[in-house]
Amino acid sequence: MKDSEIIRGLEQREESALRGITASYGSLGRQIAMRILGSAEDTEECLNDALLRLWNSIPPAKPKYLKAYYSAVVRNTALNRYAYDNAEKRGAAEVSLVLDELAEVLADGQDVQAQAEASMLEESIRHFLRKQNPMQQNIFMQRYFYMMTGPEIAAGLGITENRVTVTLHRMRQKLREHLKKEAFL
């Protein structure tokens, strides 16, 4: 089923559209949620919740890239579930490590509460990423969007784990400088 058919199906409230999303992008969603949650049961619940959010958001939303839209919905759903499950404890999951790495660069969530400021921060980070080469963009997105580990990124890209680590370290430094220039830090 093509993305345009799935979106049209969602707009017309056809349940077959949900089956189309699952067939096309279910394994990607499962990988994203599993990396964040670390539990098969939680992952399945997250995927069902993500499908419900997608059902409720289209319409009015009409995403240009369904794969990216679905990935973002799954990721946000999983992060919300993770935050809820770990409200009083700090687990050793990869998510904590990823968030800690970015915490060195980004301001505390309490400091960036206004939606307008958050939107401007997102756009600034997108602008920063557009200036990087495709390999750097790929490494950054795999680490901080898909929550992949260094060894997973290295294996997938056919590079050394050290290269991934060094690239991420340098990108965080560049991002910090970029955000300072943009007056976010």
Number of helices: 9
Which structural class best describes the helix and strand composition? mainly alpha
Q: Any idea what the CATH superfamily of the largest domain is called?
A: Winged helix-like DNA-binding domain superfamily/Winged helix DNA-binding domain
Distance between the termini: 45 Å
Radius of gyration in whole Å, from Cα?
Answer: 17 Å
CATH architecture of the largest domain: Orthogonal Bundle
What does this structure look like?
With 185 residues, the protein is mainly α. The chain has 9 helices and no strands. Helix 1 (3-11) packs across helix 2 (16-37) and helix 8 (150-157) packs across helix 9 (161-181). The protein has 2 domains: 3-85, Rna Polymerase Sigma Factor, Chain: A, CATH 1.10.1740.10; 94-181, Arc Repressor Mutant, subunit A. The radius of gyration is 17 Å and the shape is globular. The model is unreliable at 108-114 (pLDDT under 50). The protein is 73% helix and 0% strand.
In short:
This protein is an all-alpha fold and 185 residues long. The chain is 73% helix and 0% strand. The chain has nine helices and no strands.
Please write out the topology.
Layout: H1 3-11, H2 16-37, H3 40-57, H4 66-85, H5 94-103, H6 115-130, H7 134-144, H8 150-157, H9 161-181
Helix pairs in contact: 1-2, 2-3, 2-4, 3-4, 7-9, 8-9
